[in-house]
Design brief:
- The chain is of the alpha+beta class.
- Helices cover 47% and strands 12% of the residues.
- The strands form 3 sheets. Strands 1-2-3 form a 3-stranded antiparallel beta sheet, with helices on one face. A 3-stranded antiparallel beta sheet has the order 4-5-6, with no helix packed on it.
Length: 258
């Protein structure tokens, strides 16, 4: 093995195997690599897992057990409802491949099988979101001591690149016709979106306190990333001065009249 011997590692064909004696029991397993350095790393990782299992007995947690704990202990207290819904959708997709599988048996090969099964039936963007959910779940399993590493992080996502079609903004005449057909409040929101480029959820939650008339800035508190940000309402791309100068100085800028 490149000048270094290890009695616990041996070759079968071109693949290295590991042999360990833990708690009076002999274990043998393929290390699934032909690289001696990687074989030593995997043997060390495997030994750590076997020693932990010998002490705790925690070797048989299933994928669905991990999901239940992840949802109740992690997601329920740390993510937005919209993110929770997205993860839940991904979990349903993951169950076809991983339900009944021990967490410790989830490998990059099994993840690759999941990707192959989804390819062609859903977009690459959807598959990548599913892998993100799986990776978050397995990271929690690492934190709980169920596994020592996250195989989803080892999966090369560059093979499922997300293709984005170019965005073609509507022409000014189309925007004007839509705003003319809207109630005044909705037209004002559309006007603000057009002039500032902010997101819809950011605009509809604005209050007079978020608007700095002296600096001509808007403080956005409810953002997609949950991190507040400040934008100018006069930019090369638009000018919302006329709209905001007429808006209420207190309370909601766009109150729901119903």
């Amino acid at each position: 093995m490149s000048g270094r011997t290890n009695a616990n590692i041996y070759l079968r064909g071109k693949t290295y195997w590991g042999r360990l004696q833990i708690a009076g029991r002999e274990h043998r397993s393929s290390l699934r690599t032909a690289d001696p350095r990687e074989a030593r790393r995997r043997l060390k990782q495997w030994k750590t897992e076997l020693e932990r299992e010998a002490v705790t007995g925690d070797s048989d947690q299933l994928f669905e057990e991990a999901v239940i704990r992840w949802i109740t202990e992690v997601l329920a207290t740390s993510v937005k409802p919209q993110t929770m819904r997205r993860y839940t959708i991904s979990i349903r997709s993951l169950e076809d491949t991983f339900k009944g599988v021990r967490v410790r048996d989830i490998t990059t090969r099994l993840i690759s099988n999941f990707v192959s099964g989804r390819s062609g039936s859903v977009t690459n963007a959807t598959i990548r979101r599913d892998l993100t959910a799986l990776s978050r779940l397995l990271s929690a399993c690492v934190a709980w001591g169920w596994i020592t590493s996250n195989p989803a992080l080892s999966f090369d996502r560059t093979i499922i690149r997300e293709r984005r079609d170019p965005i073609t903004p509507p022409c000014p005449d189309s925007v004007a016709r839509v705003k003319a057909a809207c109630p005044p409040g909705m037209a004002a929101i559309l006007d603000l979106l057009e002039q500032t480029g902010m997101r819809e959820n950011e605009a509809v939650s604005l209050t007079g306190d978020n608007v700095d008339h002296e600096r001509q800035q808007i403080r956005l508190l409810r953002t997609k990333t949950s991190r507040p940000r400040t934008i100018a309402w006069v930019t090369p791309g638009g000018d919302a001065t006329a709209l905001l100068e007429q808006a209420p100085r207190t309370g909601c800028l766009f109150p729901n009249r119903h």
